[in-house]
Specification:
This protein is α/β, with parallel strands linked by helices. It has 2 domains: about 5-190, 3-Layer(aba) Sandwich (Rossmann fold), CATH 3.40.50; about 205-275, Helicase, Ruva Protein, domain 3 (Orthogonal Bundle). Helix content is about 40%, strand content about 20%. The protein has helices at about 15-25, 40-50, 60-70, 90-95, 115-125, 140-145, 155-165, 205-215, 220-230, 235-240, 255-275, and strands spanning about 10, 30-35, 55-60, 75-80, 105-110, 130-140, 165-175, 180, 185-190. The strands form 2 sheets. Strands 4-3-2-5-6-9-7 form a 7-stranded mixed sheet. It has a two-stranded antiparallel ribbon with strand order 1-8. Strand 5 (about 105-110), helix 5 and strand 6 form a beta-alpha-beta unit.
Length: about 280
């Protein structure tokens, strides 16, 4: 099958890599796997040999038609759709077999470089329906996803992904493993969904926007980024003190737990001010 560069299509041509990727999802017996962007089906074949059912979500109508000729409909359901519009909750209800009751969906995706972040956010928003995912992304993106505090790669993407569960890099493939070869190396990582918001006493809807503000300019201190976000110097200083964070620290040096403590400190400061204003 000819690829379409505008869709970010680079087809895997390494059978051993396909087997290794499928194995990275773990035991697939009796399970339903969602494959994002199956392309010409190189990895679909390895998945269908292990899983009860594969739901292949493919945007390209030509590839979707091709896939339907390559795999039995009872084992592979091809959904011609943009994955950003795909409903994981509905898929879990309709396609997860009875033997997998109590488990979420398993996901594999060779993510198009241009919309990698959007797909990651889509999966995060669908965390209630997904147990784990094995994803292929540009190597530099995987480095940022799995980065730890204090490293140059640690930032908003690291915190966002890791707030929804642990992410670990597995292995990297060279451009020669694909046709046509991309200009970059591709890394496969595994993401186990276990959101940390409740554990850390956070509100999901407001914590992530706060993290975005904290990392707004990596060269600036956390205090300066908070002030640039409209938080007064006094409130920022009070929250930093409550969280026992050095006011000269940068966000990239703080683990998720410290960022959570700072968010809680800001909420406490705001509540105290509101109570005082109401007296």
């Amino acid at each position: 099958m000819a690829s379409k560069p505008k869709l970010g299509q680079n087809f895997l041509n390494d059978p051993q890599a396909a087997e290794r990727i499928a194995a990275s999802l773990g035991d697939l017996s009796g399970r339903t796997v969602i494959e994002i962007g199956p392309g010409a089906g190189a990895i679909t074949g390895a998945l269908v040999a292990r899983a009860a059912h594969v739901l292949a979500v493919e945007l390209d109508s030509g590839l979707a038609a091709y896939l339907r000729t390559q795999f039995p409909p009872g084992r592979v359901t091809v959904v011609e759709q943009d994955v950003l519009n795909f409903d994981f909750a509905t898929a879990l209800a309709e396609y997860a077999p009875t033997s997998a009751a109590g488990h979420g969906l398993l996901v594999f995706g060779n993510l198009p470089y241009g919309i990698t972040s959007q797909i990651l956010l889509k999966l995060a928003a669908s965390h209630a329906s997904v147990e784990r995912a094995v994803l292929m992304v540009q190597r530099e993106v995987a480095d940022r996803i799995a980065a730890q505090p204090g490293s140059r790669d640690y930032g908003l993407l690291s915190v966002t992904v890791q707030m929804y569960g642990a992410a670990e890099k597995l292995f990297t493939l060279p451009p020669s493993a694909f046709s046509p070869p991309p200009d970059v190396f591709s890394t496969i990582f595994r993401w186990r969904f276990a959101p940390r918001f409740t554990e850390l006493g956070l509100d999901e809807a407001s914590f992530l926007p706060f993290v975005r503000k904290a990392f707004a300019q990596k060269r600036k201190t956390l205090m300066n980024n908070l002030r640039a976000a409209g938080i007064s110097a006094a409130d920022a200083a009070s929250a930093l003190a409550r969280a026992q964070i050095d006011p000269h620290a940068r966000a990239e040096a703080l683990p998720i737990e410290a960022l959570a403590a700072l968010w809680r400190g800001l909420q406490t400061t705001a509540s105290t001010e509101q109570a005082a204003a109401g007296q």
